[in-house]
Amino acid sequence: MKSKDFLKFLTDKPIVIAFSTILIIEILLQIGVYKPFLKKNSYAANINRVTNHIIEQRKVLDPTILIVGTSVAFEGISVRILNEELKSTGEEVQSFAIRGSELVVQHHLLSEHLRKFPKVHTIIHVLEPGMAWVDRSHLVEPTMVMLSEVGNVSSIPLVQKYEYKMVWTDYLFLLFKSIAYRKDLGDMFINFNERIKAIARRNKNPNLMPWDYENPHTESMGPYNIRSLEECMEKTNPQTTFPLPTESDIDHRRMIHETCAIAITVPKDPIKTESTDRYFRRLNKMYSLILDQKIHIINVFAPYSSAIRPLNGPERMKIWEDGLHFALGDRQSLDQYDLQDSLGKEENGQYCFDLIHLNRQGMETFSHILGKELAKRYKK
Predict the structure, then answer these.
(1) I want to staple 211 with a disulfide (CB 3.0 to 4.6 A). Which of 30, 79, 82, 307 is the partner?
(2) Which domain holds residue 74?
């Protein structure tokens, strides 16, 4: 095709209209027009909801202590209970924990929003002992979705700094909202009525609490009497003959099975690997951001199911200790609460929803334990 013909093709009215429509849609998505319509409990909706809510609630709850972490902190810590325990100290706690957030997402959140909380003097970083051994070298879609919501273009240099091996499709995903939202848009068109009903329910029942979430799950692992990962896989797989406990249901059993299936893939040998070294280099970058703002870091290891506790023995925790010293550098000494056994060393299933998440009883009990520890620290 000659250049003259190609130019004529590009200026053809239908082509101009098509490109203009695509451009307008992309601009509208970039400025956030679609955000209120995101699918409930999707990664994009979750990170927007948590972030927007705690920023909007600053007049009610302007924290001096901020919790950062994944679903372990999100499900396992009650902001309400911590603030009750700390009431006499004058300290106030808020949670920035996000389900499924890798370190790069947590870093990006803090870089974009930490300055909005000028009273914060301490960050409680809730860590997961197995996480360093499953650290990823490539981006996965949930991580890119969350990065895109925090700041899509600004996330690219951070991802590069975090040593991810990016491919050209990753760049497109982070640059263009029409690509990032393609699955959510498709789901909305397929289930339009359900999406509108969900939005209507959300608008009719707004969250009036200063915190975004408090674990409502009463289901328990206790009746399964699971003592090992192998036993977990056997008792919770879809073809199991183990009777379904009355305190559980099929969905709950499936979620237990999913966390067991993930846990069983974590390397068992407590030795340093390429993944652990990369994880602590990444953690050093995040901690540098925090320490640059003269904010203290407290590391917390929360309780898991006793079925997984043997994996996190002294050898693995020594690697964590060395890694945290490296991440903190010479700017702060290690300050940590290892509370993995705070709900019992043997059978603690009554407190657990699944292998790594607490249920409501576990959340309440653990939050009181953590709150009392913090109250002793900040006692006036």
Answers:
(1) 79
(2) 45-136+209-377
Q: Please give the residue that has the higher pLDDT: either 246 or 95.
A: 95
Residues 6+ apart with CB under 8 A from 284: 326, 327, 328, 329
Q: Which two tokens stand for residue 265?
A: 């893939």
Residue 103 falls inside a structural domain: yes
Looking at residue 280, its pLDDT comes to 98
Are residues 155 and 148 in contact, defined by beta-carbon separation less than 8 angstroms?
A: yes
Residue type, 35: K
Tokens, residue 154: 């600004």
CB 332 within 8 A of CB 125: no
Whether residue 158 is contained in a domain is answered as: no
Nearest 5°: the CA angle 217, 220, 225 is 165
pLDDT for 266 equals: 87
Angstrom distance (rounded) from CA 186 to CA 34: 13
* Strands 65-68, 336-338: pairing kind: unpaired
Contact 97, 75 (CB under 8 A): no
CATH number at residue 253: 3.40.50.1110
The reported pTM is 0.93
| Residue 222 forms part of a structural domain | yes
Given a cut of 60, whether residue 6 has pLDDT beyond it is no
Dump pLDDT digits (tens) for 69-92.
Answer: 999 999 999 999 999 999 999 999
Query: Given a cut of 70, is residue 278 above it in pLDDT?
Result: yes
pLDDT at position 20 is 79
- Which uninterrupted H or E stretch holds 131? none
In a domain, 368, yes or no: yes
